[in-house]
Amino acid sequence: MAYICLLLSGAALLVNGLTLLGRVPGRDSGVFNVLVGGLQLVLCTAVAVTADGSLPALLAIAGTFLFGLTYLYVGLDALTGLGSAGLGWFCGLVAGVAVVFAVTNATVDPVLAVLWATWAGLWSLFFVLLALGRPIGRYTAWALVLASQTTTTVPALLGLSGNWPTGPVWTAAAALVAVAVFGGAAVLARRPHRSGSASDQAQTATPAVA
């Protein structure tokens, strides 16, 4: 279930990055986010019901549950114009939880710890963009696009094939990917673009994440 949710997150991150870049209409991405977030919440609820109170099982789905709520919130915001400030503060909370997951996985699964740290960075960008209103829409958009496949889709496919990456080499590779995501986004964000694009409008931009 976790790998399937990771695949869904990859799709949501990509669509939302393209939305911030003005390539996908907000209403289209809103519907998509509602579908992805709703499906993730249903899957997490099913696991929680069958977990029989197992704390490890509940902990394993806690992060996915928060991501599902984020996507659902993003979708409803895009479709109904709720306002993005509340969404931004919620993303700040999710970023903090992601840091906790990164720390707790540092010795258990270092690759997953690096991925959680990367997702914490993404959700921190949502917080800065939506809650604080800083004009980082274009940078956030490219970070989403780059992270969508490298930190969610590819790891999910590896996990589904029974080849989840482990060991110091893979951990170092994951760290390099994280650097490439945020560094590459900075480079791409500086490219010439149309003024007034969706990514320039921090107050009205709508993200979505892992």
Automatic annotation (TrEMBL):
<keyword id="KW-1003">Cell membrane</keyword>
<dbReference type="InterPro" id="IPR038523">
    <property type="entry name" value="AmiSUreI_transpt_sf"/>
</dbReference>
<dbReference type="Pfam" id="PF02293">
    <property type="entry name" value="AmiS_UreI"/>
</dbReference>
<keyword id="KW-0812">Transmembrane</keyword>
<keyword id="KW-0813">Transport</keyword>
<feature type="transmembrane region" description="Helical">
    <location>
        <begin position="139"/>
        <end position="158"/>
    </location>
</feature>
<feature type="transmembrane region" description="Helical">
    <location>
        <begin position="6"/>
        <end position="24"/>
    </location>
</feature>
<keyword id="KW-0472">Membrane</keyword>
<feature type="transmembrane region" description="Helical">
    <location>
        <begin position="31"/>
        <end position="49"/>
    </location>
</feature>
<protein>
    <submittedName>
        <fullName>AmiS/UreI transporter</fullName>
    </submittedName>
</protein>
<feature type="transmembrane region" description="Helical">
    <location>
        <begin position="86"/>
        <end position="104"/>
    </location>
</feature>
<feature type="transmembrane region" description="Helical">
    <location>
        <begin position="170"/>
        <end position="189"/>
    </location>
</feature>
<feature type="transmembrane region" description="Helical">
    <location>
        <begin position="55"/>
        <end position="74"/>
    </location>
</feature>
<keyword id="KW-1133">Transmembrane helix</keyword>
<comment type="similarity">
    <text>Belongs to the AmiS/UreI family.</text>
</comment>
<feature type="transmembrane region" description="Helical">
    <location>
        <begin position="110"/>
        <end position="132"/>
    </location>
</feature>
<dbReference type="InterPro" id="IPR003211">
    <property type="entry name" value="AmiSUreI_transpt"/>
</dbReference>
